[in-house]
Amino acid sequence: MAFPTAVILLLAFLASALAIWPEPVTFQAGSSVLWLAHDFHISLNGQNASSPGYSHGRSERHVPALSSIHRHPSRFLVSQHRRQRMNGVNGSSSGQVYEYEILEQAIQTTTRAIQTTSFVPWKFHSRKANWEPSLDSQQAFLTEVVIHQQSPIGQTNATAFFAGDESYTMDVGTNGSAAIRSNSTMGTIRALQTLEQLFYAHSSGSAVYTPYAPLSIQDRPTWRHRGVNLDISRNPFQPSDALRTIDAMATVKLSRLHLHATDAQSWPIEIPSLPDLARLGAYQPQLVWSAAQLAEVQQYGLSKGIAVFLEIDMPGHSAAIANAYPDLIAAFNESDWSTFAAEPPTGQLKLNSSAVYEFLDTLFADLLPRVSPYTINFHNGGDEVQANAYLLDETVQSNSSVVLQPMVQKMMNHVSELSSNAGLTPIMWEEMLLEWNLTLPSAVAIKNGSSNATSDVIIQVWISSDNLNTVLEKGYRALFGDYNHWYLDCGHGTFLNPYPSGFSPSGIPYNTSGGVPTQILDPFTDYCSPFKNWRHIYVYNPLENITANLQHLIEGGEVHLWTEQIDPVDMDRKLWPRAAAAAEVLWTGPRTPGMIEGASSRLGEWRERLVLDHGVGVEVVQETWCLMEGGCNL
Q1: For the stretch 376-395, what's the b/e string if a residue is b when 16 or more beta carbons lie within 10 angstroms of its beta carbon?
Q2: What is the C-alpha separation between 202 and 86, in angstroms, rounded?
Q3: pLDDT one-digit tens code per residue, 252-285
Q4: d(CA 387, CA 401)
């Protein structure tokens, strides 16, 4: 589409006016209004796949509200007979991804979202401005969006599906039609997620419009792995919380939901072959995620272009297993927890026990075939392994790294091979490589033929940005998001209490008479304070000090929501809008402080849309006066 010179000259001004989040790589926008036609539809290669039943009058709309997806997700997922085709019999997986059904659902969801939007953008215009188009000016209408997808649309598997090209182009003319061009289903999904953000509700409640015609966008992600790590083990969470999070993630093109599914505190996911794990390990029986519910969450993620994958942390952070299988865990629930664990309760998988390996084989044989059809990764944990716990492990009775390292190597080799054999790429925390000096299959070693592994191990860096460079230099693919920048639980204060007397009791620290002054003092801050506000998250540059020859090994990154002091009541406002700030870094690339002013307005618009149209409780981005009157700068 050709644009007149005047439109191109408006580009710098419209960079803040075109309120798309994350910001497209390149775009050109005009200022003409297109109204949504009564018969608006989205077609896929000539076939109308939009949902019926739309009318401009809000009272006449019969399309279900998007918020009902959170209450009845199966109504908006594939139908029951399609789920049976996808899952096979009795929960076993056929391993197939039906792309046409995913596209059909994405198109219908986008159509509903556009047609039923409640977002009137008054907060982004001065009180004195005459910004809203008059209903009397309804002359140009958008009737159709045509999707032109290059790749075949058929049955595939999760690996091929998530490897799809996420780039797309979009052209919106002034003649009643628009076009989306993509090379894969993933690219089409990302384009539809952008399309939804172009439209506003008229304050009369009787029309929907876009003020950006003509419009041209060329867009693609910087990194493929754009994730949120959600801890569902320390406090109770329901599958509906994950569904709501997936909805919000999709609006900002995040692509991975990492469920930290188990930890020392609880084991909330059902393992049918090991029923006591969740029956005894969850906080309450009603707080168990059934195998069917987990599959539902993963399928819903698939429909949004989001791979939902699990982390079973080991050998540390595994004390919850002892509720069902106490003989597998060393140093369980020791009162002097700080000697044996990073936080209470204590307990780690025994390192030299054949029973532990039998347990792991049973666990992975049950779990991996069920989760592998919907994702490409499995996280094997590996963080904060405390050597002192193995002083109390009768199979080891040592805290020497010389003694322990080969045992840790054997265990992590075993679980990573199980993951790889299931077609999943293992992920491990950085300590396995940098502190325990494990020899793991790397991307570079596999490429040059020096490793016979079927898959490399991706290393997740969380302690320091400096460690990212070290991991890359060793030839590993890596994920960034260290606690100094992208930990969302920081700055809320510690969850640990001082001893009432101010001194530790007898036996704490371990094998002493006690009497040590408490380390927890006013103002009771947490280890990773201060709070990471969205601006701090937005300007984090993961490429700083990373040489160009290593950057191809960066797979992407994640923001982390550890939940010692977070539950479903405050999860949304702890997660958003800060995860959205990270999403723009992951999609568009590193940001700079000079971009913050424009970002405030765009992120503010995204926030209003998510609150009004998706029912997500997003924390305020910017004061209303600042949004209306041109910013608040110092």
Answers
A1: bbbbbbbbebbbbbbbbbee
A2: 41
A3: 999 999 999 999 999 999 999 999 999 999 999 9
A4: 7
Answer for the pair 582, 559: CB distance below 8 angstroms, yes or no.
yes
Q: Read off φ and ψ for residue 177, nearest 5 degrees.
A: -140, 160
**How distant is the alpha carbon of residue 413 from its chain centre?**
27
Q: Residue 217: helix, strand or coil by DSSP?
A: strand
Name the pairing type of β-strands 377-379 and 200-201. unpaired
> Length of the chain, please?
634
Own/partner long-range contacts of 569-574 (Cβ < 8 Å, ≥24 apart): 571/237, 571/241, 571/245, 572/244, 572/248, 572/616, 572/617, 572/618, 573/617, 573/618, 573/619, 574/488, 574/489, 574/619
The pLDDT of residue 46 is 66
Dump pLDDT digits (tens) for 581-619. Answer: 999 999 999 999 999 999 999 999 999 999 999 999 999
**Confidence (pLDDT) at 50:** 63
Ranges of residues in the chain with a pLDDT under 50 are 1-16, 51-93
For 164-168, the CB contacts below 8 A with 24+ separation are 166/190, 166/220, 166/221, 166/224, 166/253, 166/255, 166/305, 167/218, 167/219, 167/220, 167/221, 168/194, 168/217, 168/219, 168/220
| All domains of the chain in start order, with CATH | 5-219 (3.30.379.10), 225-491+526-594 (3.20.20.80)
Task: State the burial class of residue 8 (Cβ atoms within 10 Å of its Cβ: 0-12, 13-18, 19+).
Answer: exposed
Q: Which two tokens stand for residue 587?
A: 């999609």
Output the pTM of the full model. 0.91
